[in-house]
Design goal:
The protein contains 14 helices and twelve strands. It has about 400 residues and is α+β, with helices and mostly antiparallel strands. It has a single domain (about 40-385), classed as Beta-lactamase. Helix 1 packs parallel to helix 6 (about 170-185), helix 1 (about 85-95) crosses helix 9 and helix 3 crosses helix 9 (about 255-270). The radius of gyration is 20 Å and the shape is globular.
Length: about 400
């Protein structure tokens, strides 16, 4: 497990304007608590005997009815969905008919929801889909920034003198979904990333419906991979992941009823192939789903965001959690530590799990001789809804 791991989207290489959300003439909320104080410290980085850094943020936990069970910080803080939107974009692919036309398998659907690490199995999975759809991977416009994220694969490619292509980018499956939907519908392919393209409009309308918003009210921006992303609140994100894992439950409503088949198919695909959602190594999303098969659906987004859906079962109720690190957490250390701690406080992880996930729970930076130099430690307690 590398020191201070990073989940979600690849590193940014776009201009400073990329990802900027339109203001629509109204002032953005500052992500502060109700009393106007700064967000609480979720994770503290200790170097020697000194508290070197503090990461502030917000966490919200929902029950099966969509009610806030516990929280810290401000659940209504505004966030940008980034890669947490991918499962809902995949719903648009399924509902278009393209997934059935291509007979997409669970692993193939899983990679459409992925921020994968660019391993050979990710490439092979996408190449097989492209061949069946009779389209070329040269259409991918996600770029190559940070690709592949898997260090072993990157080292091998460098040794062999191979330049990674866009198919090894973590968002290539996300882009593939738009290409496949466009090919099936007969839409143009070369401009599929244009926000005005029918594929992007279809995704926007699907995301709006599943998040309970009107399409005209959607506030959008551009993600680092070039596709649209959306402004929501952390609470809305948690509710959307509750809908993903329990689309026929008490909190589902008309959106869940209408899209239940597609949502269940995406949910089950992600749990069936968690290594295609993330990667073989050093992916907390993948490792969480591996440790709680059939119970957890997890997806991170860039700039310190993660959503977790808790799948209902015979002895377990549905629920969800969403976390946001205010400073963006470029190293991934705070999101990693806070995610594991929040799931432990929610009763989803036990002591054995915490030992197995210790590299995520307490990420450590090492010196050149392998000695511990700094450690990130969770510093929060989720409060009941009545005391929040």
């Amino acid at each position: 497990m590398p020191a201070f791991p990073s989940d979600g989207d690849p590193p940014a290489t776009a201009t400073a304007s990329a990802g900027k959300v339109a203001s629509h003439g109204r002032q953005r909320r500052a992500g502060r608590t109700r009393k106007g104080s700064p967000p609480p410290v979720l994770v503290e980085v200790i170097r020697g005997a000194t508290s070197e850094s503090r990461h502030r943020g917000h966490i919200v936990e929902l029950d099966a009815a969509g009610k806030v069970v516990r929280a810290v910080g401000a659940p209504a803080t505004e966030i940008v969905l980034r890669s947490t939107v991918k499962p809902f974009a995949a719903v648009a692919l399924i509902e278009s008919g393209a997934a059935d036309d291509l007979a997409l398998t669970p692993p193939e659907l899983a990679i459409m929801c992925a921020s994968h690490t660019g391993e050979d199995k990710h490439v092979r999975t996408l190449q097989a889909v492209f061949r069946r759809a009779n389209v070329t991977q040269a259409l991918l416009q996600c770029g190559t920034a940070g690709a592949p994220a898997d260090e072993r694969t990157a080292t091998r490619l460098a040794r062999d003198g191979e330049t990674p292509g866009p198919i090894r980018h973590g968002c290539s499956g996300f882009h593939a979904a738009s290409i496949l939907m466009s090919a099936y519908a007969g839409w143009s392919l070369d401009d599929y990333t244009d926000p005005r393209h029918p594929s992007q409009r279809a995704v926007l309308e699907t995301v709006a419906r599943l998040f309970g918003r009107e399409p005209e009210a959607m506030r959008t921006g551009t993600d680092n991979c070039g596709l649209l992303t959306y402004e929501m609140t952390l609470l809305e994100l948690a509710r959307a992941y509750l809908l993903l894992v329990d689309p026929e439950g008490p909190a589902a409503g008309p959106a869940g009823e209408a899209s239940a088949p597609a949502l269940l198919r995406i949910r089950d695909a992600m749990m069936t192939a968690p290594d295609l959602v993330g990667g073989t190594y050093d992916s907390l999303d993948t490792d969480l789903m591996r440790r709680r098969p059939g119970r957890i659906v997890a997806k991170a987004g860039a700039d310190g965001l993660r959503a977790v859906g808790l799948v209902p079962g015979e002895a377990a109720a549905a629920g969800s959690l969403a976390l946001k690190i205010e400073d963006g957490d470029g190293s991934g250390r705070a999101l990693s530590a806070a995610s594991v701690e929040a799931l432990a406080q929610a009763g989803l992880l036990d002591e054995r799990d915490l030992r197995a996930l210790s590299g995520y729970h307490h990420p450590t930076a090492l010196g050149p001789a392998g000695q511990e130099a700094a450690t990130a430690l969770p510093r929060f307690e989720l409060a009941g809804a009545g005391s929040h």
